[in-house]
Records
---
Amino acid sequence: MKYLIVFALAVFIAAAAFKSASLSPAPVATPAFAEDNGGITLPEGFRAVVVADSLGAARHIAVSKTGDVYVKMERVRDGRGIVRLHDANGDGVADQISAFGPFSGTGIAIKNGYLYASSNSEVFRYKLNDREEPINTEQPEKIITGLIDRREHNSKSIALDDAGNIYVNIGAPSNACQIRNRTKGSPGQDPCPLLDSVGGIWQFRTDKLNQTYKDGERYATGIRNIVALAWNNTANDLYAVQHGRDQLNNLYPELYNEEQSAELPAEEMFRVKKGSDFGWPYCYYDHLQKQKVLMPEYGGDGKKVERCADKQKPIYAFPGHWGPNGLLFYTGTQFPEKYRNGAFIAFHGSWNRAPRPQAGYFVVFLPFKNGMPSGDYEIFADNFAGGNLDPGKARFRPCGLAQGPDGSLYISDDQKGRIWKVMYTQ
Amino acid sequence: MKRIHIIFSLVVITTVLLSAQTKPVSKERMAAGKKVYDTYCLTCHQADGTGVPRLNPPLVKTDFVLGDKKRLIGIILKGMDEQVEIDGNYYNNVMASHDFLSDQEVADVLTFIRNSFGNKAGAVSPAEVKAVRAALNKASKR
C-alpha cells in the first residue's frame, strides 16, 4: 500500500513536470532550411524547410497554435488517415510523426477548439485541449454524414466561419451533366437533376451531430467541383476556386480546336454569397471573351450567351485546367506587407491540356484589397514538377496550404507527400 | 512416318501460334491506331499512356491492356466506372463508352495500345470487335 502511494506520488510529480515542460513554447532553434528549398523555387528572401517527406498523398493541412501540422491523407495507411507532425526542437523539421483517424479524405481545419476533418462522405471533429491537441483521437464526433460520393469529384473540402457554420463542397460526379457522362454526342440534361444534391457548397452547423442533407442548406449552386475553399475573416465571406470542365475538343472537335480546349474554360475564382449560382453545367467562363457562355452540351457554340447572362461572374479567372486545390488568405505579419490579406492558391497542375503542354504545378499569390483582387497574380512557389510538367511524372504536385502561428506558409504535396514550411528571412 | 507427321504438325502449330503472338504489327495499322488514340484517348491517358495519378489509370503493362481481348474490347465499347484496383491504385474518373467508334477503329486503337508504351501483345481484329459488340447488343436487348 505504502509503495502504491509513493508510486502514485511519483507518477503525479512526473506528470506535473512533464506538463509544465510541454506547456512552455517550443525552443526557438534556427530553422533547418533545405539546401535547395526542398526542390522548389521561391521569391528573393524566402526559404523553405522540409517539414516531412514521403507521407503519401497529403491533401489539405492545418497548423495548430503550437505549430503542429495536421495532414489529411487521401488514403489510410495502417488504418489511419490523419497524420500529426510535431517539431519538438523548433527547427521546423517534424521529429515526431504519429497518425490517427480511420478515414481517408481531403478536408481539414482547426477552429475554436476543434479539429475538423472530412472523408469523402462525412465530416468529423475532434475536441482539442488548450495546446490544440486532440483530447481523444479514438472518438471524434460525427457532425455530417451521408454526402454523395460517386468517385468522380468526391473530395469534400471544408471551411468554417465565425458564426458556428461549416461549409462543405459537394462536387458533381460529372463533367457537364450529360445524359451519359463524358460521352461524345450525349446531350446535357436540362434541367440538370444533379444540382439538388451535388454541384454546390452546403452549409451545416458545427455543433450538431449526424447532420444529413435535410439538416443543411445548399448555400451556393452551379459549381462543378471545388477543392480550394476558404473562409476569409477580413472580408467575412466564403471564397472558392473552381475546377472547370474538361474535354471541349474531345467532345466537340467541330467547335473547339486543341489550343482552345487547353485554354478554356477559365479556372474561376468565386466570392460565394448565400444563394450564388455560378452557372454549371449550363455555362462556363471564357476569360478571353470575358464572359459566361453557353456550354456546348446545352446548345452553345463558344459564343452564345443566352441564359448565362445572369449567372454570377468570377472575381478572377485563371487559364484552363491548372487544378486549383488549395486556397489561403494570408493574415500573418512575417511576410512583407504586400502579402497581407492576399490569397495564395496552390495549382495542382493540369492533365486536360494534353496534347498541348501541361501547366500549373505551382503556388501563386493574388493581391487583395477590401475582399476583391487588387492586381494580377504572380507565381510564388514554383518547380514542384521538377521540370516534368506531366501529371504522372511530376516530382511533386502542390495541394494544401496553411498558415503557421509565426506567419510561415505551409504547403503540402499529394504526389509523394512532402510538406514545406516557407519563411521570410530578411 | 506417323511420328514425323506429328512432329511436323506440332512445328507448324507452334509457328502459327508464335507468329500470331509476336507478328509485328504493320506501320499502317499502328498509325491508324495512333490517330484514334490521339483523338479520343490521349487527353485522359496521356501521350505516353502513363495516365493521371488517382484519376485516369495508366495503360502501361496493365492486365486489362495485355490480357483477355474480349474484356479489353468490352471496356472500350461499354466504358468503365467501377472501383477497380489497377496495380495497387484506384482511379476516380469515369471512362465513357466509345461505342461510336467503328469495329475497325476499336481494333486499330487496341492494337496500338497493346504495342505501344512498352506493351507487347497480339493485334485485335475488327471481327473480334464485331463479335463482342454483337454479344453486348444482344445482352442489352434482353
---
Amino acid sequence: MLDLFAYGAFFLTMALTYATICLGLNVQWGQTGLFNVGVAGFVAIGGYVSALLTTPEAADRVGGFGLPIFVGWAGGALAAGLATFFVGAITIRLRSDYLAIATFGVAVAIHLCVLNLEGLTGGPFGIGFIPRPFASTAGDPSVFGALNLVVMVLVVGLLYLFLERLVRSPWGRVLRAIREDEPAALALGKNAVRYRLEAFAIGGAIMGLAGAAQAHFIGFIAPDNYMPTLTFQVWAMLIVGGSGNNRGAILGAIVVWGLWAVSAGLVSAVFPPEQQARAAALQIVLIGASLCAILLLRPRGILGEVSMVSRHLGASPTQIAPATERQNAEQA
Amino acid sequence: MTAQILIDGLIAGSMIGLGAIGVTLTYSILRFANFAHGDMISWGAYFAYAASALLGLASTSLTTPIAPFSFGWSLPLATVVAVVLTAALALLVDAVLFGPLRARRSAVIILVMASFGAALTLRSLLEFIFTAQPAYFTDELQIAIRLGGGMRATPDQLLTLALAVVVVTAVHLMLTRTAIGRSMRAVSENPQLSGVVGIDVRSVVRIVWVLGAALACVAGVMAGLLVQIRPQMGLDLLLPLFAAAILGGIGSVPGAMIAGLIVGLAEAVAVQTIGAEWRASVAFLILVAILILRPQGLFGRAA
C-alpha cells in the first residue's frame, strides 16, 4: 500500500515536471503560435545550469558551487530564458518554419555541447549527486515522495495562476491578436517582433525551470535525457490536452505521461528481456501515431482553447466568440 | 592531408546535396519544412538492405562483388526496388497525413508538426523492425586507390560521386526542360493560378513526393554503402539537409546541391581541424550564419 503511494507520488511529480515544460510551450505555441522543436535543448540548459550551481565541488569538472537548490532553479530558468531570447532574436523575424528548423538545430547543438564539453558537463556520463529537495527524508519513500509532490504542485499551481493572469492581461491579448491577425495588430501600433520575442523567452525560462526541477527530483542528469523524443513527448502532451489552454497543458501532460508509463509497463510485461529495447521503440510509435491522429481528428485537443476577454469588459466569452467569428468570415 | 579533405567533403556533400534537393522541392512546392525527409533516407537504405538480402538468398552469384567494387549485382537491383518502395511510402504518408491536412487548409506549422510526428514514428518503426544495431550492405573490405596529389578514395566512393553528378544533372534537366518540370515550377510560383491554367496540382504534388523520396533513397543507399545503415542516420542528416536547402535558396535544385557540397566540405574541414565529435555543429553554425546574413540563401530570391 505504501509502495503504491510512493509510486503514485513519484508518477505525479514526474508528470508535473512535464506539465511545467508544457506550460512553457503553451506560452510559445498556444498563445503566440511560435513553433519550437528544440524543447529538449532548453530543458537541458535549465537542468545543467542548476546542477552546476548546486552540486558539491567536483574535481573533474568546473564548479559544483554548492549553492542552495532554489538558486539553482532560478539560475536554470534565467539561463534557458536568455538562450531562447538569443535564438528568437535571430529567427523570429523570419518565416514561421525557419524558427522550427533553427530551434531543431539549437537542440542538436546543445546536445552536442553537453556531450563534448566534459570539463563543464561531465560528458556522456552526466552529472550525479545533484541535491534533492528534502533529501533528509529519503529514508522514508512515502514522506519524501509526498513532500516533493507538494513542491511540484505548488510550482505548477503558482505558474498556472501567473500564466492565467498573463494571458488575460493586455500583454496576452496583444499576443493573441498578433497570432490571429498580424497586419491588424501592426496597424494598431503593436511591435509584433518584440511581443513574440518576450513570449518566446518567457516560455523558454519556464522550460528551464522545469529542467532544473526535474534534475533535482531525479538527482542525476545525462545527455541522453534530452533527446528529440523529449521534445516530441511534450508536443504530444500539449496537443492532446489542448493548445492555448493552460489547464489543457497540465491535463495533457498527466494523460500522456500516464499512457507512457502504462505502455512501458506493457512492454516489460509482454516482451522477453532481450527484446525490450526493441519493443520500447513501439512506445514512440504509439505516441507519434496518436499525435498525428489528434492533429487529424481533433485538432483542438481534449480541452481546447477558450476565448478570453478582459475581465473589465464584463461580457461572457460565449457572447464574444460569434463576433470574432464574423470578423474572420469577413476577412476570408 | 589537405587534398584528402576535398575528397571526404565532396563525398559527404553529395549525399547531403541529394537529400537537400528533396527538402527544397517539398519546401517550395508543398510549402512546409518536412522533418520526415531524413527518415525517408533511412527507410530507403533499409528497403535496399532488405531487398539486397532477399536477392542474395535467391542467388549467391548476385552477391559476388563486381570488381573493383565491394558489392554484387544485388545492390543496384535492390536500389531500384528500394526507390519504388520509398516513393510508395512517401505517397502513403501523404495520403494518410499531409493530404487530409492540406485538404483542410491547415496552417503551415500544423503540417510541420505533423511531419515531426511522422518522423519519430517512422524512425521508431525502423528501430523496432531492424533494431538499433548498425547494418551493412557488404562485408568486403576495400583498399583506397591513389588519385595523385595525396588524395585517396575507394572505388565505391568514386562511383557514388559519379552517380550523384548524373542524378543531379538529370533532375536539373527534368525541372528546366520538360513539361513536368515546368508545371512543378509553376505550382511553386502560384498553386491557385497554375490550377486555373489547367495544371493538375495533385499530380504535381505526387511527382514531388516521388522525386524527393527517390533522391532520399539514393542518398540513403550511398550513406549505407560508404558508412553504415542505422535507424538514426536520417535524423543525423536532417540538420545538414536543412542547412543546405536554406543555404542554396529554397526551391533551387543546383543551389541545394552546391550548398550540400559546401556543408560537406565544411564538415570535412571541421573533422580534420577541431575533431569528429563536433561535426554536427558545423551545419548548425552554417544555418545560423545564413539566417542572420542572407535568409533567402545564396541562389534564392528575397521573399
